[in-house]
Amino acid sequence: MKNINSKERSDSITLKGLIAAQSRMSANHPTVAILSSKQSMIEAGIGGEERVAEVLGRYKFPFKNNIFHDLSLCSDSYFQIDHLVKTPYYGVILETKNLAGSLEFRDNPPQLIQKREDGQIKYYESPVVQLERNIELFSAWLSERNIDLPLYGAIVLAYPKQHVEIPPADTKILFPNLVPPFIKSLPQQGKGLSASTFNWLSAELIRCHQTYIPKPICESYQIPIQDVQPGVRCISCGKIGMIKISRSWHCPVCKVNNHLAHEPTLAEWFLVVKRTITNRECREFLQINDKFTANRILQSMNFKSHGTYRNRTYFMDLRTIIRN
Ligand SMILES: [Zn+2]
After folding, report:
1. Spacing, Cα 233 to ligand 1 middle (Å)
2. Beta bridge partners of 115
3. Is residue 161 over pLDDT 80?
4. How far is the CA of 230 from the centre of ligand 1 (A)?
5. What is the Å distance from ligand 1's center to 89 Cα?
């Protein structure tokens, strides 16, 4: 079984950004509640996908297969597949939903309506539409490579207490333990992919997988930069406000010194505030006065940069955050 490392998911970058942003905003800021509910949604989504991955991982299919989780590919546009089960005869795309309460799949207009136990009603984009779009885009991706593989899809409800009031008209809905029997029941028609094509396709999927880098939180939610509290975060106690001392940073709260404390704080800048940073922005965010110190710090981070010295901007490849 091939697994794309689930740590390299774009969701976990968004999650890190959401958590960092909330901790740098005042608790009564109007956007904090929105960020916090987005955070729980992503956590639930990751939890659901992990449950499905676990069921698939335990199951021994009686035929050759490769399973990919959280696959990000690009065809006409960028798309993300929760799970792809690939056999020589067909591919199965699974879209996982992890929502509590009772669910109604409306077809016209396509919508998913969630009625929670506390009476709250929420409206979502229909996973049927997401699934169909993914099947279409993946089918185009395969055609670009001259591969003819029938595709099937299903929506998996991963939350243990989900109840489907109205199912969608033409789409299969499964609970996690029903996924392996569903995959096994699909027809194996024609000659199927040759062993070499099958293996080539697996390698090609891994080669083309690219972690999507989400926009910084301030950009996504129109939060003014001045609403984000600057300062170096202490690696030991998590409090913001470490002070620059000679060759290190000092935390006035827990008294710890750490000479690399600016590194995760700069990563927070890119997750939360902006894709780029200048010397001035670095000084403001790290709360230091000296531009030579800021310059030394920016140079030491191996960021990509462009522009001449005075108006140089630096970028960070956020993928390195999740690899660490
Ligand atoms: Zn501290």
Report:
1. 8
2. 102, 121
3. no
4. 16
5. 57
Furthest-apart CA atoms within the chain: distance in Å: 71
Distance from the alpha carbon of residue 255 to the mean position of ligand 1, in angstroms: 6
Q: Within 10 Å of residue 227's Cβ, how many Cβ atoms?
A: 15
Residues lining ion ligand 1 (Cβ < 5 A) are: 234, 236-237, 251, 253-254
Give how far Cα 136 sits from Cα of 89, 127, 129, 131, Å.
18, 14, 11, 9
What is the residue extent of each domain of the chain? 6-208, 230-323
- Pick from 183, 3, 162: nearest CA to 94: 183
Residue 6: its pLDDT value, please?
A: 43
The angle formed by the CA atoms of residues 291, 296 and 300, to the nearest 5 degrees, is 145
| Rounded Cα gap, residues 313 and 267, in angstroms | 15
CA of 273 to the centre of ligand 1 (A): 23
Measured CA distances, 151 to 131, 168, 204, 273, 303 (Å): 11, 19, 17, 40, 41
| pLDDT given for residue 3 in this prediction | 47
Of the candidates 289, 300, 302, the residue with the CA atom closest to the CA atom of residue 259? 300
Higher pLDDT residue, 8 or 192? Answer: 192
**pLDDT tens digit string along 311-324?**
799 998 887 766 54
Measured in residues, the chain has a length of 324
| CATH number for the segment(s) 230-323 | 1.10.10
Task: Report the separation in Å between the CA atom of 135 and the middle of ligand 1, taken as the mean of its atom positions.
Answer: 49
Q: What tens digit of pLDDT does each residue of 75-102 get? A: 888 899 999 999 999 999 999 988 888 9
β-pairing, 276-278 vs 304-306, is unpaired
